[in-house]
Design goal:
It holds the Pfam family DUF6624. The protein has 225 residues and is mainly α. It has nine helices and two strands, in the order H-H-H-H-H-H-E-E-H-H-H. It is globular.
């Protein structure tokens, strides 16, 4: 009997520890967090794209160090928010603030465990209409790719840089036959349309190099009718 009590006590303690109690956000705290998220996104978007402007003269090593510093510094802040307030959804920081929070998490590739923790909580909030299902799809695929696994929605791409520059889903797809149905359920466009958009953007950013290699236009997929 005593052993059963011990086992029950351990299970109950595990359950209690697993049920997080997050603090509500209101008033000045909400405004402060929204402003902080906005400022972090501004610097995040500098680091997420090719170097330009005042960063143009950075060596590759300097640029990589800058990017790492940005993503890691931002992650420390949003991890603190997540620990205290849980997933920052529409109810917590508004739609714009919630999108900012998601984007910052999306770029925490140096900490896939953190991304996975946020994804789990985000799934709950999507079901409550307190988070964007499109963003969930992107983060789900990001977590999959960072774990070396196939994607469910095809949002993360590589490019055939040695040939036409066409965008392809990184690591491949799970259940590719039903992917457009799944993407529609989460508010995403058909995969061929999305890949064509990514292909066109990549081609335009590297147009001179592709023309020099004999490719004068983007190598597009036939879009689903």
């Amino acid at each position: 009997m005593r052993n059963y009590c011990i086992i029950f006590g351990i299970l109950f303690l595990t359950y209690i520890l697993g049920c997080r109690s997050y603090q509500p956000i209101a008033g000045d705290t909400k405004t402060e967090i929204q402003n902080n998220l906005l400022e972090m996104v501004k610097i995040d978007q500098i680091a997420a794209f090719p170097k330009k402007g005042i960063y143009s003269d950075y060596t590759d090593e300097q640029w990589q160090a800058f990017k790492d510093s940005v993503f890691q510094t931002n992650q420390k802040t949003i991890a603190g928010y997540f620990k205290t307030y849980g997933y920052l959804g529409y109810n917590e920081v508004g739609k714009e603030g919630s999108n900012h929070f998601w984007l910052l998490v999306q770029h925490c590739d140096h900490d896939p465990k953190f991304q996975k923790q946020v994804l789990k909580e985000m799934e709950i909030q999507v079901k409550k209409n307190n988070a964007d299902p499109k963003n969930y799809a992107y983060l789900f695929d990001r977590v999959q790719v960072n774990a070396g696994k196939k994607q469910l929605f095809g949002t993360q791409v590589d490019y055939l840089v040695e040939s036409t520059g066409r965008a392809i889903p990184r690591n491949g797809l799970i259940d590719s036959a039903n992917i457009d149905t799944r993407r529609t359920e989460y508010g995403l466009s058909p995969l061929s349309e999305y890949l064509n958009d990514m292909t066109t953007m990549h081609f335009e950013m590297n147009k001179a190099a592709y023309i020099q290699s004999g490719y004068t236009e983007p190598d597009l997929y036939k879009e689903a009718e």
